[in-house]
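Continued from yesterday's entry.
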Amino acid sequence: MNRYTIIVAGGSGSRFGATIPKQFVALAGKPLLMHTIKAFHNYDNAMKIIVALPAEHMSLWQDLCLQHSFEIKHLAIEGGSNRFESVRNALETIKDSKGLVAIHDGARPLVTKELIQKGFETAEMCGTAIPAVPVTDSIRQLDRQGSHTVNRESFVAVQTPQIFNLEILQKAYTADYSPMFTDDASVVEFNGQSVTLYDGSSENIKITRPIDLKIAETILIDRK
């Protein structure tokens, strides 16, 4: 079965506070995004990898690849104004209608080969695979009356890679954009398709703030 990966790296990184988008910030000596791409290449070096980037930073990425002698084959495309449009732009480059496609956040560079494999195996059996981890903090629900405690065991935190049968995802992305689409699972569910969860990893963090970068560097050192 053919496998594809779409890496969404179109964010501005405004919360990160750097002068360049966070996907280009150095992690262990090279741009964070390169770690993410390498993770999927290490899982399957024949798999087509598509990277959706901000249009205004395409040349920066090309310069970084030259600077770091980054030679892992991938297709860099211009993303859209939001995640939904970026994924749809990437899907349009896949001419196949059979197989599996993983959608992954460019800012999750610590994804492991084992987690990727588990996701593809789940999607091959079930058609969809969404990684999730338990919520460990106490959480409260906000409403018009204020807030109230909810049972955290009824909730999970969702990660990527989210992996789908190509036909399921292609059909889902014929929909018009909605602000309710927070990830690819929500797009698929809007199309009437249920999704299957699989165990994510507490190390599969998304780099959002400078402290996350320090945590990621520590994890990378521990893995050596």
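--- second protein ---
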Amino acid sequence: MKKIKSFTVDHDLIGKGIFLSRTDRNTYTLDIRLAVPNRESVKPEALHTLEHLGATYLRNSAFSDSVVYFGPMGCLTGCYAVFFDDISYADAIKLIRDAFEFASDFEGKIPGSERRECGNYLFHDLDEAKKTARAFLEATNGWDEKRLAYPSK
């Protein structure tokens, strides 16, 4: 069986950042790494909250028609964002950082956190989500498309 590309990346070399995970016919996937793999992880409740905040922001942005998906990684170290290729990498990086800026400053009711809106509506942690978003923003300050490649030895 063919190995998934993300399983071929040396996760011991990855830090916090934004990486180009894959490109497909008319989409690409960004690996939004919020924690250092194999050393730390994001609290699951905070990652769930970031999913709600991030998806809400992206789907309400000027690039909403370019957003295919935004959601958490199973390993709890980050998120994936899938975009149609009509948005540049530079614009996508800015959009991701803007979404995390939105999350870092968010006050009020978490979007989609009512019982009828979410399958695990009590599983949120806004304070930890904001802390995680701030740390990610600090780590990705000045990030650009030249830094999208995964690190290698």
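Helices lie at 44-59, 89-105, 126-139. The radius of gyration is 15 Å. Will compare against the first tomorrow.
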